[in-house]
Amino acid sequence: MRTIDLPAYGSGHSAPLTHVGFRPDGKRLATSSYDGSVIVWDTGDRARPVPLARLRHRRLVNASAWNPVDPEVLATASADKTVAVWRVTEEGRTTLRTVLARHTDDINSVAWLPDGERLICVSEDGRATLWSTADGTFLAEVGSHEAHCMMVSVGPHGLVATVGEDGLVAVSDPDGTTAPATRRYDSSIEGCAWSHSGRLLAVARDDGAVDLLTAGLDVVRTVPVSTSAARAVAWAEDDSAFVVGAYDGGLHWFDVVGTRLHRVEDRRVWPRSVAVAHGVVAAGSFWNGPHLYDLTTARPIAAPEDATHGPNALVQHGDELLVGTDSGLVVAVTADAAATPSVRLIDLTDGPILSLASDGDTLYAGTYSGQVLRHDGHTLTTGAPLGAPVPSLAVHDGTLVAGTYNGEFVLLDPVSLAERERIAAHEGSVKSLAPVDGGFLSAATDRTVRAGGPDARATLWEHGNLVNAVAALGTEAAASASRDHTVKAGRLVRLPDGTWRARDVQTLLGPDESVKCVALLGDADRPVVLAGSYDFGLYAWQVDWHDSAATLASGRLFAEFGQGLSCMLRLTDGTVAVAGWDGRLLLVGLDADGRPAVRRSLHLEELLHTPAATAPAAADATEGRAA
């Protein structure tokens, strides 16, 4: 297992924050990150959080939990499949106390039982397990989900609540004094939190609502929160209010009877995690540190100092390759692998750009905050919020198509960005769109890859788990990358009635972790498939449509990165641009023997600090706003 290697951004994290956790006294805050570290911040002065200690894992860290009995003990949960238990002194000295035995999959969340000796760990393998932290021994399995178990919360009386992508909410008692209870929802549940009294369990729903449940999982109240999924929830210490982080990019304050108190929108905030202690709300960020707010007024108290620039999207724009980043900057670099690279910056926003599309002289960007931006070189136009993040964009038949986390195609006027129509396209987030003549391909978390126009679409194939990306090679071949650890490739056929079909579909085996991005090189009759994984590897397969067994046996690790790979794009000269979250950019082509070869290697950090890149190109642009 490779160890994350990311460039530093100031004194904080080098990548977005996945989790925030206050120590009960509010004087320490632990932040977890995609950079593989946990930073413990001294929050004694709320307006000036100071990094006190840094703890490291080999892979991204999903969560942490402070011990309820010993304030110097912190547990951290990582995608390296371990849970580490640390001692962090008041002065910031750290000692690794124990590492719980290697789990079978990524650990998503941890929570202590009230005795401060036992720890619950929940994993992407669906299991909730109980461990003794004194000697690192496994004690029991306390729950099981049919899909990824996403979060665990332990109440003051020892009741354990777990939620998962299977829609199951389960309450159990490891000490056996309370009967277990379950409740099933139709869609994924990713967040939960017991109130401090233990009387209510808040459950963050994928449809944007929060349910307040009894310990027996009866519904006390349903609170509508957002147009997109509710992700995380945290209670005020007197249980009078709670704060919700949602995928509309906002933080939402409610009192216990469901009255909305405040809403905070900041494009830098990543609200997949929130925490509350002593009148302060902490939230995750796409920048290098946490956001702090006053619980009563929602007034900002502190914010991170520096942006991070992880690449999320690629598009070719004339003779340039454009890279959309977590900071909201678009980095434009010469796309010709043989030319001396020139660099310019386009400053579109201060939050993550998830998707890019280009049409002539016009650039479009989809953001995490749910807006679409249009930049024509002179004017920046910001569309009205679509109500959910926009991970995919495509231009089709004079219309801009935005694929959203809500599973919709939102059809926009390509000039004004005014909304024309909404179409329920998938039963899950539309992660990727790939234009083809006469239509476009789409990949989604409902496991399907589909083809057609905005309305009439046909399913080409289905994966065993969510699909992260889809790519086309002309109108003749396509490939998709999935969290089921596979890539699928197939030939495309368009029937006389305009319907798309796939034939000769093959499954390509490679990494042992989720496959994030995909592209095709060469000729559609015998293409080379490239795919990038969360295991930091770039893989290549030679596809033989007439011998699927030969394709199954093919595949090799082609290059390694310092973090997971994020996106790929086939350029007009036949090369493929590959980007990793470590900021590395590769241009890959085929050599004389038809094998993939690196033609150029670049790094975003170096491009950002070239003299020509010091002044963002959009700095003097005026901003328009769609009606």
Could you explain the architecture of this structure?
With 627 residues, the protein is an all-beta fold. The chain has 2 domains: 286 residues, YVTN repeat-like/Quinoprotein amine dehydrogenase (Methylamine Dehydrogenase, Chain H); 303 residues, Methylamine Dehydrogenase, Chain H, CATH 2.130.10. Helix content is 2%, strand content 54%. It is globular, with a radius of gyration of 24 Å. The C terminus is likely disordered. It comes from Streptomyces salinarius. Keywords: Repeat, WD repeat. This is WD40 repeat domain-containing protein.
Summarize this structure briefly.
This protein is an all-beta fold and 627 residues long. It has 2 helices and 57 strands. 2% of the residues lie in helices and 54% in strands.
Supply database-style keywords:
single chain; 627 residues; mainly beta; Methylamine Dehydrogenase, Chain H; 2 domains; five-stranded mixed beta sheet; 2 helices; 57 strands; 54% strand
Present the secondary structure layout.
Elements: E1 17-22, E2 28-33, E3 37-42, E4 50-56, E5 61-66, E6 73-78, E7 83-88, E8 94-100, E9 107-112, E10 118-123, E11 127-132, E12 138-144, E13 149-154, E14 160-164, E15 168-172, E16 181-184, E17 189-194, E18 201-205, E19 209-213, E20 219-224, E21 230-235, E22 241-246, E23 250-255, E24 260-265, E25 269-277, E26 280-285, E27 291-294, E28 300-302, E29 311-317, E30 320-325, E31 329-334, E32 343-347, E33 353-359, E34 362-367, E35 372-375, E36 379-382, E37 392-396, E38 399-403, E39 408-412, E40 419-424, E41 430-436, E42 439-444, E43 448-452, E44 457-462, E45 467-473, E46 477-482, E47 486-494, E48 500-509, E49 515-521, E50 528-533, E51 537-542, H1 548-553, E52 556-560, E53 565-570, E54 576-580, E55 584-590, E56 596-603, H2 604-608, E57 622-625
Parallel strand pairs: 36-57
Antiparallel strand pairs: 1-2, 2-3, 3-4, 5-6, 6-7, 7-8, 9-10, 10-11, 11-12, 13-14, 14-15, 15-16, 17-18, 18-19, 19-20, 21-22, 22-23, 23-24, 25-26, 26-27, 27-28, 29-30, 30-31, 31-32, 33-34, 34-35, 35-36, 37-38, 38-39, 39-40, 41-42, 42-43, 43-44, 45-46, 46-47, 47-48, 49-50, 50-51, 51-52, 53-54, ...
Organism: Streptomyces salinarius
WD repeats: 10-42, 54-96, 100-141
Pfam family, one: WD40
